[in-house]
């Protein structure tokens, strides 16, 4: 990353301080009474990275008028969540990151700069998109088995026609975008009703909470239908 600075006058300065900010924003619309909507907003801001870069090339601790570039490299914490935004109706949550810089004079945060309007001594924060890595702590790699589950087949809600039993096994529990995985089905039709096939679907569920309340949104990521012709066991 390169920080660009343009100075129109000479000032006394020793350090350019870079900072990465994380903003967690939660908004929930609560319908407490039919005609009243209570809006709850929770904002959490946290500094997750501060980097002090000495401006050694300015010699006597002052910056002459001109344009300067300050390239730097820094390692982000491995456990930070990625940039995200999700909406459910008029409620939404987001995790947002921004990066900026400001100048510090000799002696730290006090002195001359505290008596001058700070707007021209700091950059406007720029949004930074973070692509997070999966947090695998506590996750056991490998497959997952769904035990057999029998479902009663009723006609007109009252007349039982027997049961159908289905169990499945997922080859992998950790998937990245673009990955494929195998899903194994075992089924038995102990009813007098024919089945058309078996459908597997993958859903994403996001839940956010604020002050004891929560909002959940679920959406379909993908699905696969397998015809009954591939499952002779589905025949009555």
Automatic annotation (TrEMBL):
UniProt keyword annotations, A-Z: Membrane, Transmembrane, Transmembrane helix
Transmembrane segments: 20-42
UniProt entry tagged with the keyword Transmembrane helix: yes
SUPFAM superfamilies linked to this entry: E set domains
Residue span(s) of domain Arrestin-like N-terminal: 60-107
Pfam families xref list: Arrestin_N
UniProt superkingdom: Eukaryota
Gene Ontology CC: one annotated term: cytoplasm
Name assigned to this protein: Arrestin-like N-terminal domain-containing protein
Organism: Ditylum brightwellii
